[in-house]
Amino acid sequence: MTTEADVDVDVDVLIVGAGLSGIGAACRIQTRTRHTYAVLEARDAIGGTWDLFRYPGMRSDSDMFTLGYPFRPWKDRDAIADGASILRYIRQTAAEYGVDRRIRFGHRVIAASWSSQRARWTVIAAAGPQRRRVTFECRFLYLCTGYFDHSRGHEIDIPGSEQFAGTIVHPQHWPDGLDHSGREVVVIGSGATAVTLVPALARDAAHVTMVQRSPSYIVSRPARDRLADWLRAALPGAVAYRLVRGKNIALTTLGYALMRRWPRKAASLIRRQNAKLLPASVPVDPHFAPTYDPWDQRLCLVPDGDLFAALRSGRADIVTDRIAEFTPKGVLLASGTHLDADLVVTATGLAMVGFGQIRLDVDGEPVDPARLLIYRGMMFSNVPNLVWCVGYVNNSWTLRADLTARQTCRLLNHMERHGHTACTPRADAAATAAPLRPLLDLRSGYVVRAAQRLPKQGVGGPWRFRQNYLLDAVALRFGRIAHPALEFTDHGR
Predict the structure, then answer these.
(1) How far apart are CA 473 and CA 388, in angstroms?
(2) Integer Cα distance of 84 and 167 in angstroms
(3) What is the mean pLDDT of residues 441-462?
(4) pLDDT digits (tens, 9 = 90+) for 198-207
(5) pLDDT per residue over 222-246, tens digit each?
(6) N or C terminus of the chain: which is more exposed, having fewer CB within 10 Å?
(7) Is residue 4 scored above 60 in pLDDT?
(8) What is the pLDDT at residue 493?
(9) How far apart are the first and last CA of the chain?
(10) CA 158 to CA 403: how far, in whole Å?
(11) Going by C-beta distance under 8 Å and a sequence separation of 6 or more, which residues neighbour residue 58?
(12) Three-class secondary structure of residue 112 per DSSP
């Protein structure tokens, strides 16, 4: 049993993760509540994903006017920004708001236990290289860990890798100093990481071949927003930022709705755009003709058509086939074609995990994420005083992350005004009996592989995780905090 003397830090809100979401959440709690808080970060630096991923070409796959924080305008020139610029923006935000002074680095949270009697979470972290046990207590636990496993990516088992004489690397673990200049490179994959890597590697490599088992929908978009440039020159910065942000939210939301309503027309339009940008040597079918509808999986964004430019230059090409095995000098495809390679990049996807792989229990009962229902896209059935930040799949992550942060602040202030110490979503029989759906409405490999291990969503009401910012903004910013499905208690006072 943990005693008061064993506790290293006791705060109102404990935020886990100092990435884009965690820094935003800390800024909101600091400016919109009177609650004390601390941030725990497993790594030794601010930035989360943007500090972890170091592969060539690392960049955003959505515009920075919506991926950036609404309370701190994005001022750089490019709307589709490189990873270094985004990392600098996150760190500058943390410093400007003083959040960086509230972060404990090198603290990996491994377990958290809720006591209804005390109305508190006891959180255990492993600190430093020695993994020293450190104990924290908090009233509210706010997980900004994302849903990807930062310790490993998704690897596929390809026979013969031990005989390959070159280098094999996963983008999530890109080693410092890896030189691809003048080398023959094979990139395995067809998702956002692969389409980012190929043009970046092609600048210096002898040649890059992207090998995909099945194609993805790829959309070209200007790296710079010309309207944003004009508005910035004509209007005060904050006003221009809001207008551009609103325009991008509306266009993205409308575009998603239209594609889901008329998928065949959307697919045809995307393929026609691809055909205009491709060289004659690369046909749309089969290389750019997915077998699924747009937004069954995320669309891949390429700024200024850089992937297509790499293909037109002849420094890169694309092959749609399966890899049979590695050979000493490259990879052998199922069709019998051999691709010479000095470097093979396995851009085969990421691994999803729930709650940052933190072991949770409520009054001694272990929490199984797969048995939970998500409430209002942020809390979970029968788990008190806990928020897990999950972003949109069809729009910028930060849009949803900031709504979650603002709603959490409203919830904390409501509890303080009414003397509540705990709030717990309770799913009734109707909610649990309805056909449950995966947490994320995507058929992407990383989602399908993890669907059975993650929380679920219901078909309606607060148990549905909508992918619609405009509806969520109204409900979460202006709707009532109190809901019949949200139980407030006053234990532990």
Answers:
(1) 18
(2) 25
(3) 84
(4) 999 999 999 9
(5) 999 999 999 999 999 999 999 999 9
(6) N
(7) no
(8) 61
(9) 20
(10) 42
(11) 50, 82, 83, 84, 196
(12) strand
Q: In this structure, which long-range contacts are made by residues 206-210, counting pairs with CB atoms below 8 Å and at least 24 apart in sequence?
A: 206/182, 207/315, 207/316, 207/317, 208/310, 208/315, 208/316, 208/317, 209/185, 209/316, 209/317, 209/318, 209/319, 209/339, 209/341, 210/316, 210/317, 210/318, 210/319
Q: What is the pLDDT of residue 103?
A: 97
Q: Tell the residue number behind the tokens 């093979």, with chain if given.
A: 344
Burial class (CB in 10 A: 0-12, 13-18, 19+), 488: middle
- Please write the tens of the pLDDT for every residue from 353-370: 899 999 999 999 999 999
Pairing of strands 167-169, 37-41: unpaired
What is the rounded distance in angstroms from the CA atom of residue 489 to the CA atom of residue 348?
Answer: 46
- Asked if residue 140 lies in contact with residue 12, where contact means CB atoms within 8 angstroms, the answer is yes
Q: How far apart are CA 381 and CA 377, in angstroms?
A: 11
Q: Are 385 and 123 in contact (CB under 8 A)?
A: no
Of 13, 102, 109, the closest CA to residue 355 belongs to: 109
Largest CA distance in the chain: 72
CA distance 473 to 463: 16
CA–chain centroid gap for 280, Å, is: 36
For residue 447, what pLDDT is reported?
A: 78
Listed in sequence order, the residues at least 6 apart from 77 whose beta carbon sits closer than 8 Å to its beta carbon are 224, 229
CB 184 within 8 A of CB 342: yes
**Which residue is it, tokens 């491709």?**
278
**What's the whole-number mean pLDDT along residues 64-90?**
96
Per-residue model confidence (pLDDT) at position 459? 82
In whole angstroms, what separates CA 141 from the centre of its chain? 19
SS3 of 230, please? helix
Nearest to 491 by CA among 118, 100, 15: 118
Measured CA distances, 191 to 240, 276, 340, 346, 385 (Å): 33, 21, 22, 11, 36
* Strand-pair category, 330-333 with 323-327: antiparallel
Residue count of the chain: 493
